[in-house]
Specification:
The chain is an all-alpha fold. The protein has 13 helices and no strands.
Length: 368
């Protein structure tokens, strides 16, 4: 038995050279994998895919932000409208025609249209007619005696709107009344009188009228801002009007800012928008730590948010309870935190056979 000389294949013909045409040079070998061009295409596709993901995420975040902003604006606007509707009822009962007219005109400019405006206009018209003078029958000779008004009645008559003999408004007299109202700090009377004057002739003594109106609006707004929360919405409207006639007085801009934050937060209390209420209240307390009941509202909002999270996310609920405790040391928050900590550590207990039921009227947390 002959052993081969080596392990390489041999030609069947002894001593015959191997044809050179079957040898492969290293340069002619097939590539073992994709070349640089292929890798460049793959890299480019990966980059484009990543950019697409980032773009979609940004678009989703922007859309969510716009939706939240729209909801916030709608809630604040609705709060303002409700306040004006309540004030109109008060003004109608008091017979304050000027303020009723102003408020109805403001509501009529709102979008979407407010359904009550038409009915309010009819009410205002009826109220206006009731305050118009009626024809007095000519007295007969048997009624020769006349009645002299008392001092109180005469004073009341003098405070009414003055008219010229031809029936037109006496603008100089109205301006005098407005100036007297401003000097006596009767801001509401001044605003009403000046509104009547401006409606009659927008070009009459504009510099003086605008100055008096700016003073009256700023002063009344500041008064309402610093009274209680019932007048905040009206105060914001008055401050906005004051800015149209002139400049805001010291403190009015700040009061308007914190009042807007407060009303925005208040509209989210007792709703599922816990984070929105917390955000507005936190911003408010950073500007004015003792503003009305903002601190108490923030504590309640933290506890409510914790209660909403405690079953599904007990560890996150602990954070909300801690926030409430850090503000006031709330006993309610402390008790709830103990439960949340236990569930966070040991898991939330679920009764055997329990199946969660979703309330169709409640929006899940984290969804718009």
């Amino acid at each position: 038995m002959n052993l081969p000389d080596d392990t390489q294949p041999n030609s069947p013909f002894k001593n015959q050279p191997v044809p050179s045409n079957i040898l492969l040079s290293p340069e002619s070998e097939a590539a073992a994998g994709p070349g640089c061009g292929s890798w460049a295409v793959v890299s480019l596709m990966a980059v484009l895919f990543a950019l697409a993901i980032v773009g979609l995420a940004a678009a989703a975040g922007w859309t969510s932000g716009v939706r939240v902003a729209q909801n916030n604006a709608t809630a604040t606007h609705q709060s303002d409208v409700n306040s004006q509707l309540q004030f109109i009822q008060t003004d109608v009962a008091a017979g304050n025609i000027g303020l009723v007219d102003i408020r109805i005109k403001y509501l009529a400019t709102q979008t979407p249209a407010i359904a009550q405006v038409l009915e309010l206009q009819q009410t205002a018209t009826a109220l206006y007619l009731t305050y118009q003078p009626t024809n007095t029958p000519t007295p007969t000779e048997t009624l020769a005696a006349t009645i002299t008004p008392t001092t109180e009645v005469a004073s009341t008559l003098e405070s009414t709107v003055t008219t010229a003999p031809e029936g037109a408004l006496d603008l100089p007299a109205l301006l005098t009344q407005a100036r007297q109202a401003v000097n006596s700090s009767n801001w509401e009377n001044a605003i009403t009188t000046l509104d009547i004057l401006i409606s009659a002739d927008p070009q009459f003594e504009t510099t003086t009228v605008n100055g008096l109106m700016t003073t009256a609006l700023n002063s009344q707004a500041l008064k309402l801002f610093r009274t209680d929360e019932s007048g905040l919405a009206e105060a914001i409207l008055l401050a906005n009007r004051a800015e149209q006639f002139g400049i805001l007085a010291d403190g009015v801009s700040f009061e308007r800012e914190v009042a807007t934050l407060y009303l925005s937060a208040k509209s989210r209390v007792n709703t599922s928008d816990y984070t929105g209420g917390i955000r507005y209240l936190t911003d408010l307390l950073a500007l004015s730590p003792n503003y009305l009941d903002a601190r108490d509202l923030l504590v309640k909002q933290y506890i409510a948010y914790g209660d909403a999270l405690v079953v599904s996310q007990p560890c996150s609920a602990m954070t909300q309870y801690d926030n409430a405790i850090n503000l006031t040391g709330s006993g309610t928050a402390s008790a709830q935190r103990v439960i949340a900590e236990n569930w966070c550590t040991n898991g939330t207990p679920t009764p055997e056979g329990f199946i969660a039921t979703i309330d169709p009227n409640v929006t899940p947390i984290g969804q718009p």
